[in-house]
Amino acid sequence: MEADMSTAKQKAQELHRAAGHALKARRVRFDFSGTPLHWLPEDPFSSYMINGIHLLLPAGELWFCRVYNQALPLVSDDALRAEVEGFIRQEAIHSRAHSGAQEYLRGHGLSVEEYVARVDWLFGTFLGDAPLAVPALRHSSLSRHWLVLRVGIIAAIEHFTGVLGQWAMDNTTWEARGDAAMADLFKWHLAEEVEHRTVAFDLFDHLCRTQLGFYVSRQALMALVFPLFIYFISEGARSLARQDPDPRVRRIGRLWIPRLLWQLQRTGRRTGNVPTFSFLVVATLRWVHPGFHPFFEGDTEQALAYLARSPAAQAAV
């Protein structure tokens, strides 16, 4: 197994670094003054599933930045360090962009504070510098282990952002049917997720002491991250849908998560506006393979092609 992992890693890194692509932050701005609440017309379900992400990402991506700034002194590979620094700069702007989108939700009369407070506690306290929010565990003997574990959690999360990024690059319905500003925010963000999809995985690998330990720990962390990812995405959508002016739409906010995931599967197949639940499951199963590497999960050139025509990214140049 270690031989398979080493071969896949070497091939992926050779291909990635041969491209010679440096990560850069694009200081984008978005105007949502004309963006409707259901920015995908006649599809409130997809609109809320996607809009719920605005509630999760600002705190989460700032947490990524804090953890990676702590990990930087442990990085002995110059090329990887440069990629981690580029990742940090991109994620900080992602956080700011989605914070602005929270104002768009408030402007439509939706309250986001209760859900955002839970997310802030998760990333700021439970996953903060005191392990599991227990001050007694904040000890020098545990600090490196806790840091590497959090780097691993980020790697598992970034697997989903990477595969969703490639899904968005292949998607045509957002631009064809949706609000232009909101479609551009998500496609710009997800294009950058494709662009930096290898960084989190490579950093976690770099900080693990053995390849076997890396493989076992990343599987254990994915077993934790996958259900939490599904829960927080689902709850974000439900918390917004419960406040919709239309009582028929408010039913989305009362769906149990299994029923919500069934609706995600059905809506994704019917409209193409959201990825299906089976898409997420299959992507997670690929992570299990010993030879897995995120380089093979996306197309950097396709992502850069979108960034070259993104209105917000081009205005930021």
Automatic annotation (TrEMBL):
It holds the Pfam family Metal_hydrol. The chain crosses the membrane at residues 147-169, 212-233. The keyword Cell membrane does not apply. Keywords: Membrane, Transmembrane, Transmembrane helix. PANTHER family: METAL-DEPENDENT HYDROLASE. This is Metal-dependent hydrolase. The lineage of its organism: Bacteria, Pseudomonadati, Pseudomonadota, Gammaproteobacteria, Oceanospirillales.
